Amino acid sequence: MEKRELTCIGCPMGCQITVELENGEVKSVTGNNCGIGDKYARNEVTHPVRTITSTVVIEGGDKPRLSVKTKGNIPKDKMAECMKAIDSVRVKAPIKIGDVVIKDVCHTGIDVVATRNIYSE
Amino acid sequence: MKTYEIVIIGGGPAGLAAAISARKAGAKDILILERDKELGGILNQCIHNGFGLHTFKEELTGPEYAYRFMEQVFEEKIEYKLNTMVMDISKDRVVTAMNKEDGLFMIQAKAIILAMGCRERPRGALNIPGYRPAGIFSAGTAQRLVNIEGYMPGREVVILGSGDIGLIMARRMTLEGAKVKVVAELMPYSGGLKRNIVQCLDDFGIPLKLSHTIIDIEGKERISAVTIAEVDSNRKVIPGTEERYTCDTLLLSCGLIPENELSRNVGVEMNPVTNGPVVNESLETNIPGIFACGNVLHVHDLVDFVSEEAKRAGENAYKFVSNGCKEEKTGKVVEIVATQGARYTVPSTINLDRMEDKLTVRFRVGQVYKGAYVSVYLDDQRIMHNKKKIMAPGEMEQVILLKNKLEAQENLHTITVKIEEE
């Protein structure tokens, strides 16, 4: 039986979670205080995922940068690739919170969306 | 002179939440005075996720969280002035401010809510030896440059201090292509949230060196290297542990200080531990009609708690206004004392008449505790003894006091919050 100690990143409580694994299969998750922790722990030991937040260049807006996020978690090992995709995008003002900036980023099935409003200059 | 029921100084998360709750409580004219060119405060540059789990039950980025509140301010047609600097407030609640359109102007407020937030401890307050070249930024300044202005401060980065903004910026700079070489922390524990150590440092293999500090900065025009060394339990450098790191950028994340110049000038009593005002259960300072909430009161880890605290400040400020702006002298006042590991509490006093059925008292501990108890005493009688797996100075703690328990205690004089080990 393999044991892994994790710190949950699901919320600021940062629960210390113990996961027991056998042949790569999760046998038990303990130490979490909620479902978020259970989900995080199972993901983390099998296929870790993260949300990415960054900015993209916006033209004709009242601000030079538009903040964006992946609308859900993406595989952790795709972070660098997604950052490249985000860096290569240029959008035009106006933009509203939730507007899709990149659809299905790096074939993750997840969209990159705007996280703030930018008005035309 | 124009009169407003409630003037709120600062349009960040605290000011916005206070304004909305005051409006919902019944306040007709409210004015928010904001120094920046937009509402939202520091949240606008905090583009990372993790906000709002308590308030909205979903994970938002800073700008999204701020916008949820801004929308309500717009809907409620709450007045605000941007690019406006408050110069002075007086004991009789006259606010003196200035901006480009109105010039210098004065406003009579029936109640004032202080929501000015905090600022970062600068290099000058850290006594780091060495040269004074370009390339040394507070972590928050770098965050603004990267996230709002779109500039990269540098490519090879060392970070001093492990506060949350420093950890967040370690990840942000890495994602933008910089090499973050090390995070050095003077204390034997991190000042940031555990989750940020995992997702901002561990994820990217950035080393965190606890009990380490910078003992030299090199570079004439631009910073070129720093020397980091280990410190002992007295925070004295241990000879022989020096390590030199070349870098073109140094970020400082060494604590936040509530911004209380206005409060001090008007004679608001300050708590030397928090550097924020001393407040009662209503979040009112020693000056009647002047309330405080958010990071100007004490530095929070979570904006959700700021919003909740500010909501109470807004409601209480309107209560003061609707009661005719009179100082209430009735009611029994009980003092809350923080001792034995609990460094302070907010609030510091409770007027039992004005207390709601439940009151959240927040505090911080002075060191890392494992398996210790948070205890609350009413005079000599212990009424709460909660075991906590881990407590650290970087994470705020709370206890909830019940009015009926306090009232049931005869001749209650002092409430004590302390940490007890077995």
Secondary-structure blueprint:
The complex is a heterodimer of chains A (121) and B (422).
Chain A: E1 2-7, E2 16-22, E3 25-30, H1 35-46, E4 49-50, E5 53-59, E6 65-70, E7 74-75, H2 79-87, E8 90-92, E9 100-102, E10 112-114
Chain B: E1 2-9, H1 13-25, E2 30-33, E3 49-51, E4 60-61, H2 62-75, E5 79-81, E6 85-89, E7 94-99, E8 103-114, E9 118-120, E10 136-138, H3 139-149, E11 156-160, H4 164-175, E12 179-185, H5 194-201, E13 208-210, E14 212-218, E15 225-230, E16 243-246, E17 249-252, E18 256-258, H6 261-266, E19 270-271, E20 276-277, E21 290-292, H7 303-322, E22 333-339, E23 342-346, E24 349-351, E25 358-365, E26 369-378, E27 381-391, E28 397-402, H8 403-408, E29 414-420
Helix pairs in contact in B: 1-2, 1-7, 3-4, 4-5
Please report the number of helical segments of chain A: 2
**What is the percent of helical residues of chain A?**
10-25%
Tell me the radius of gyration of chain A: 18 Å
| Weakly predicted, low-confidence segments of chain A | none
Total individual domains of chain A: 2
Strand content of chain B: 35-45%
Textual characterization of the structure:
The complex is a heterodimer of chains A (121) and B (422). Chain A folds into 2 domains: 2-47, no CATH class; 53-114, CPE0013-like fold, CATH 3.10.530.10. Chain A is built from 2 helices and 10 strands; from the N terminus they run βββαββββαβββ. Chain A has helices at residues 35-46, 79-87, and strands at 2-7, 16-22, 25-30, 49-50, 53-59, 65-70, 74-75, 90-92, 100-102, 112-114. Chain A has a 5-stranded mixed β-sheet. In chain A, strands 1-2-3 form a 3-stranded antiparallel β-sheet, covered by helices on one side. In chain A, strand 2 (16-22) and strand 3 form a beta hairpin. The longest helix of chain A is centred in the middle third of the chain and has 12 residues, at 35-46. The N and C termini of chain A lie far apart (60 Å). Chain B is an alpha/beta fold and 422 residues long. Chain B has 3 domains: 1-119 and 256-324, FAD/NAD(P)-binding domain; 122-252, 3-Layer(bba) Sandwich (FAD/NAD(P)-binding domain); 331-421, no CATH class. Chain B is built from 8 helices and 29 strands. Chain B has helices at residues 13-25, 62-75, 139-149, 164-175, 194-201, 261-266, 303-322, 403-408, and strands spanning 2-9, 30-33, 49-51, 60-61, 79-81, 85-89, 94-99, 103-114, 118-120, 136-138, 156-160, 179-185, 208-210, 212-218, 225-230, 243-246, 249-252, 256-258, 270-271, 276-277, 290-292, 333-339, 342-346, 349-351, 358-365, 369-378, 381-391, 397-402, 414-420. The A-B interface holds A 6-12, 14, 16, 50-55, 57, 63-65, 67, 69, 76, 79, 83, 97, 115-117 and B 44, 47-50, 53, 59, 61, 63-64, 67, 146-150, 175-176, 193-195, 197-199, 203, 301-302, 389-390, 395.
